[in-house]
Amino acid sequence: LPDPCTDLRLFQIVTKCMVHGPCGTININSPCMRDGQCCKSFPKQFKDDTEENVNGYPIYRRRATEPVQVGKYSIDNRWVVPYNLWLLKKFNAHINVEVCASVKSVKYLYKYVYKGHNAASVKIQKEGALDHDEILSFVEGRYVSTPEAMWRLNEFNLSHKSHTVVRLAVHLPQQQPIVYQDGQEAQAIERAALRKTTLTSWFELSKNDP
Fold first, then answer.
1. So which domain of life are we looking at (predicted)?
2. Pairing between strand 33-34 and 37-38?
3. Domain boundaries, the chain
4. Residue 132 has what pLDDT?
5. For 25-43, how does the pLDDT look when each residue is reduced to its tens digit (9 = 90+)?
6. Dihedral sign, CA of 193, 195, 197, 200?
7. pLDDT greater than 70 at residue 57
8. Three-state SS for 19?
9. Residue 13 and residue 10: Cα distance in Å, rounded?
10. 59-86, pLDDT tens digit by residue?
């Protein structure tokens, strides 16, 4: 939470747009509650320093400041959604900003690119109909905004992928892994000496085409 004495406008935006819930024991009927717990892991814990998390969100520094009154609830730093000061002041809206530094962030980005349109199922029912066909009464609808409609009508590419990233099988010189059957060790070593690995092939490519 920013200090209202030094930046009143930012304080007003944060308390209006960036406070989660509250939920948990304070408000068990909050939409984020799943099996008695917040699905967004709020409230967060107070931390003096930020900690990295290899397989998830980082644990950000959250100072144990004095709580403030937001509506009918008393809120402290544990309930504030991570944000960027400049973006928040420019757009005056809810903008969640997180650090995406793990390899799994690529999967997260692709999911948003290919997940498709916002869709809804609409049910149409006639009053007094005795022989009602429930299958035909459902309409699958989607919402396409004006910019996307223009983009699709002009048949522009929705996405683009260039090079495929391949993880190299890293090994020391003449120490590439060998798979062999009992009694065929010598033949396996001879085949391995002639076979190129992804690492040696990359070295050769870099040598011929720097």
1. Eukaryota
2. antiparallel
3. 8-91, 103-154, 166-209
4. 58
5. 888 888 899 888 899 889 8
6. positive
7. yes
8. strand
9. 5
10. 899 998 888 888 888 889 999 999 999 9
Residue 61: partners with Cβ closer than 8 Å, 6 or more residues away: 47, 48, 49, 50
Q: Which of 138, 147, 137, 146 is nearest to 120 (CA)?
A: 138
Distance CA 119, CA 110 (A): 19
Q: What is the pTM of this model?
A: 0.54
Question: Helix, strand or coil for residue 180?
Answer: coil
Cβ–Cβ < 8 Å for 17, 94? yes
pLDDT at 18 over 80: yes
Residues with Cβ < 8 Å from 16, sequence gap 6 or more?
none
How many Å from the N-terminal Cα to the C-terminal Cα in the chain?
52
